[in-house]
Amino acid sequence: RAAMLGGQVLLLLTGLAGAAGQGQERDLGGRDASVIAVSNGGPWGDWAWTEMCPKGSYASGVSFKVEMPQGVMEDDTALNGIRLHCSHDGDTSGGYTAESQSGRWGRWSEARWCPHRGHLVGFELQVQVPRRKLLSDEVAATSARFACSDGNILEGPRSAWGQWGGWSPQCSGAVCGIQTRQDPAWGLKRDDTALNDLRLFCC
């Protein structure tokens, strides 16, 4: 496991190096995009695929897949997924979404939209720091907030677990894609944590 985590840390640092100044350009689906990230993501799981809004559209809203607290001696996973809702020039009627891998637990919230035809430009994560104690229930990411271009904030369901880690850099344009770091479902083999970390792409 140590060797596996070492490789994942290297991958994460590579992403963060590009995120710090949005200097890491990537061609995704015919779109030039830069990466924004945060520094407090959870350590478990692997980076899944990247999914982009359709060309010419941007993320104007977001929804959250969250497992409610399961009670004493049960395995909690908290935040399981993030779904971007894409629009053309603020028109929210198109029904386009972008979603990287999501965990299997919980339910999706209703979409929360930036007002005034705004779009997403940054985010922050609420994450439980690894406790690494016998019989402790790790949950990793527990909630998220997204900044809109007009200064409004879209916040996920409140959680008593974890700490907010600070905002990502802001896109000079708009968020147009997403990539998640997901811990797979382990069943009875190991504690499940689901969503651990998040990257967004700016176009």
Notes on the protein architecture:
This protein is mainly β and 203 residues long. The protein has a single domain, classed as Vitelline Membrane Outer Layer Protein I, subunit A. The chain is 10% helix and 42% strand. The protein contains one helix and 14 strands. Strands 1-2-14-13-3 form a five-stranded antiparallel beta sheet. Strands 4, 5, 6, 7 and 8 form a five-stranded antiparallel beta sheet that branches. Strands 11-10-9-12 form a four-stranded antiparallel beta sheet, with no helix packed on it. The radius of gyration is 16 Å and the shape is globular.
Tags for this entry?
203 residues, 1 helix, disordered N terminus, mainly beta, 5-stranded antiparallel beta sheet
